[in-house]
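ok posting inputs for the manganese (II) ion job
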Amino acid sequence: MKGLGITVNEHLLIHQKESPAATGRFTKLLSELIFSAKIISKEVNKAGLVDILGFTGEINVQGEQVRKLDDFANRVLIYRMQRTGVLCAMATEENADIIEVPEDMPRGDYILIFDPLDGSSNIDVNINIGTIFSIHRKISDRPYVSLEDFLRRGSEQIAAGYFLYGPSTVLVYTTGNGVNGFTLDPSVGEFLLSHQNITIPEAGKIYSVNEAYTCYWDERTKKVVNYFKNSVIEGGRPYTARYIGSFVADFHRNLLHGGIFMYPADSKDPAKPRGKLRLLCEVAPMAFIAEQAGGAATDGEQRILDIKASALHERVPLFIGSKMDVEKATEIMQGK
Ligand code: AHG
Ligand code: MN
Ligand code: MN
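and the output
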């Protein structure tokens, strides 16, 4: 019936046969992720009123100062997802090592990798932040979980998605059968289908990159960015610049309106020559979504989803978004 809205569970049931990954156990996993996101969203929405801003005083495995909301989101997800009964282990951007589900808890064969709060530098200034998640199935037939179960190609993901905490809280995810968006209706506490079968425009209107790093880029990267800055078509310039320092928010805008997001390799931090974004918990899940929406994602040389992770917190350069824009950027990066 029009206007009553379709919940995530109803949508999964309707499309169960088309998405083999969307089993009852997957529904349980997604339901727990949704519950965790509702808890996080509540804290995000009142940040500034309670003592949840600022720093914990710790430094995480990324070498970054941990913000209280990062830590809160991380603890909520670890606590709740351990109790789903369908996971055997998880990994988070905030923790150095994998986290196995304790032996005394019911376990399954799903593996969850997540960035609990992406865009955390924006927490204190009330700009959109988000949670990114990636779901794999354990491959090794050993009874215990090993790092090898996590060092996978993005093409092996069972599902991937993100929650975006902003003027409304949105869930976007794929199980390999297209991309759908749901918006949280706070009056009933349910995510309702709001963006069915999202497809990213083949060519974009927006380029997103932190141009303050121009001095740290190689010549090809500068050529890519200049291409989008200086393109002109009859009637004016086709691109505009948008960059808010929250990958989830920048990606979501370009997914809906078309465009390219870039976080190229740069020389600003010798410890991070391949750029800042993490393959397993940020880049691979978004690349899965981008491709499922008809877009593309490369590291300037190869398809992101073909890259086999060699370390849990491996970073990769990223060009992601509208297919034609990513192809153009990749061509230039390859010197064509
Ligand atoms: P996180 O908050 O999880 O560390 O991620 C922040 C990332 C990403 O969200 C954003 O696109 C990027 O950092 C911004 O980095 P710069 O400030 O270097 O542009
Ligand atoms: Mn992040
Ligand atoms: Mn983060």
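notes: The longest helix spans residues 24-46. The CA atoms of residues 181 and 195 lie 4 Å apart.
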